[in-house]
Amino acid sequence: MKARHHLLQGLRSTPSILAAFVAAIPAEKLDLRRGDGFWTIAEHVSHLAQVQPMLLTRIDRFIGEDHPVFTPYIPGADEKAPETPPRMEMAVAMDRFAAVRSDQVARLAAVVDEEEIWQRSATHPEYTRYTLSILTRHLLMHDHWHMYRMEELWLTRDAYLTRLA
Fold first, then answer.
1. Can you give the C-alpha Rg of the chain in angstroms?
2. Backbone angles phi, psi at 111, to 5 degrees
3. Which residues pair with 123 in a beta bridge?
4. CA–CA separation, 157 vs 155, rounded Å?
5. Alpha-carbon distance 16 to 20, whole Å?
6. Three-state secondary structure call for residue 33
7. 2-158, superfamily in CATH?
8. What are the pLDDT digits (tens) for 116-128?
């Protein structure tokens, strides 16, 4: 139970961490593409904002359904979809991220003591096990993975930059 409260605190804190972090990055670095297959920092920020409504829907489904069945969310997988997230204005992306995150945290906090909901199983083709607890932890790790990647794209020298397949 204590871990849930820590996760919710982390989720509450992420919008301000992200906003301060992005504000520290020089504007000319936001749209710099470091190589083929690399997202820009602005695209990472945009992705974080764009994916939150889908994740809120997943939270709602865990709360409202006995055994939700999910489909993978893979940006760019649709042949009509762009390979990179559509770029949003940074202020708009930050506002959207913060607003939807607030809704996510409110929904999760409302059921924080309901063990059955947190351990309710779902079917998701990407995962061998999927629960609201796992999704909540995934939200926090997803945010911080993208923030780490943005910092790497901003500060890491080319020879040390992680190349993703």
1. 17
2. -120, 15
3. 69
4. 7
5. 6
6. coil
7. dinb family like domain (1.20.120.450)
8. 999 999 999 999 9
Closest C-alpha to 104, from 59, 66, 137: 59
Identify residue 52 by its one-letter amino acid code.
Q
Joined together, the tokens standing for residue 28 give: 């000319």
Task: Tell me how far CA of residue 73 lies from CA of 25, 47, 160, in angstroms.
Answer: 28, 12, 29
Amino acid identity of residue 5, one-letter, is: H
Q: Which amino acid is at 51?
A: V
Structure tokens at 131: 């629960």
Least confident piece of the model among 21-30, 31-40, 72-81, 97-106? 72-81
CA dist 137 → 108, 114, 142 (Å) = 12, 16, 9
Helix, strand, coil percent content, the chain, rounded in steps of 5: 65, 0, 35
